[in-house]
Sequence to fold (104 residues):
Amino acid sequence: MQANIGDGGTRWAAHEASTGQAPEIPQIEAGAYLLDALRDLGFASIVGMGALVSVSWAEIAGYMQATAGISDGWEARLVRRMSGAYIEWMKRGENPLCKPPREP
Fold:
């Protein structure tokens, strides 16, 4: 499940409309391959009645074996934590008063 960025009904679009520019996105200089792995796996898995859960260990293990994109245990743990953080911020983002993660 991907965030609906830029579809006209999102905070992204609201920010662009109010400021005339796209939100600032941080540039990833190191570890971009971990984000690539998370994108390849999918940011989250959908279970049951549409609930989001972190990418499973089995999915990560399969990815590691099939692609060699990540190979160490710490990388697998970090990708799973990144998946959990994605879900957490998706849930927080349901609140229209939620501040973006980069705001103090």
